[in-house]
Amino acid sequence: MKIILLGPPGSGKGLFAQFLQDDFGIKKIATGDILRKEIRNKSKIGKKAEKYVSKGIYVPDKIVLSMIKNKIRRIKNFTLDGFPRTVKQAKFLDKVIKVDKVIHITTNDKNVIKRIANRLQCGKCNRIYNLITIKPRRKGICDICKGKLYIRSDDKIVKTRLNVYKREIKPLIIYYKKKDVLEKVNGNRHFNLVYNDIRKLIK
Ligand code: ADP
């Protein structure tokens, strides 16, 4: 099964993609995580991408598309978190694979800003934690892989990221509505309730 999660920063895409991976073995593919790894490794892609990611704007398609192409060709069941973000990326994806479900997680800005202010991520396995709702058992340490938790530097510019998202999402929603694969989930609730709905949709 090939699933796409759409939603603003802080809507829980990464968290739910991780849950789907843990529960059903559906591989989480998060373009943001891949880009951050490239940036950490100071690779050629990383060096190019850093200027955009640090400003909260989208990395040019040329970089993102070549990065994702080989990954999605090789894997049968996956959830895409953070891709596609534009209609151009969606059209590219349609040429490579057949998408089964697109789940749009809706949220309000207040919730998103609060969640991001409390978000932590594991530097090793990319698991997402929250200082209020999903606390790690040991402060600053990942429960699963014992990696170190960190605060994403682009979380400080959440408002810019939200604006960029809002600009690009409308045409993308229209695109998937026309294809009849779009489902909507209210992401303003406790993550267990949101995840329950997502699970029902993919069964
Ligand atoms: P969020 O869900 O909070 O937007 P991500 O971790 O998905 O965060 O992405 C972080 C950053 O990585 C984005 O702000 C953008 O600069 C870059 N990025 C991730 N995915 C894409 C993509 N599909 N196209 C262009 N840029 C991307």
Keywords:
single chain, 203 residues, alpha/beta, Rossmann fold, five-stranded parallel beta sheet, three-stranded antiparallel beta sheet, 8 helices, 8 strands, 48% helix, globular, binds adenosine-5'-diphosphate
Structure notes:
The termini are close together. The radius of gyration is 16 Å and the shape is globular. The chain has helices at 13-24, 31-40, 44-53, 61-74, 87-96, 109-117, 158-178, 191-202, and strands at 2-6, 27-30, 78-81, 101-106, 119-122, 128-130, 149-150, 182-186. The longest helix has 21 residues, at 158-178. The protein has one domain (2-107, 160-202): 3-Layer(aba) Sandwich (Rossmann fold), CATH 3.40.50. The chain has a five-stranded parallel β-sheet, sandwiched between helices. The protein has 203 residues and is of the alpha/beta class. The chain is built from eight helices and eight strands, in the order E-H-E-H-H-H-E-H-E-H-E-E-E-H-E-H. It binds adenosine-5'-diphosphate (ADP). Residues 9, 13, 31-32, 35, 52-53, 56-59, 64, 82-83, 85, 89, 154, 161 line the site of adenosine-5'-diphosphate.
Helix content bin: 40-55%
- CATH classification, class level: Alpha Beta
Following the backbone from N to C, one meets helices and strands in this order, namely EHEHHHEHEHEEEHEH
Share in β-strands: 15-25%
- Give the overall average pLDDT: 96
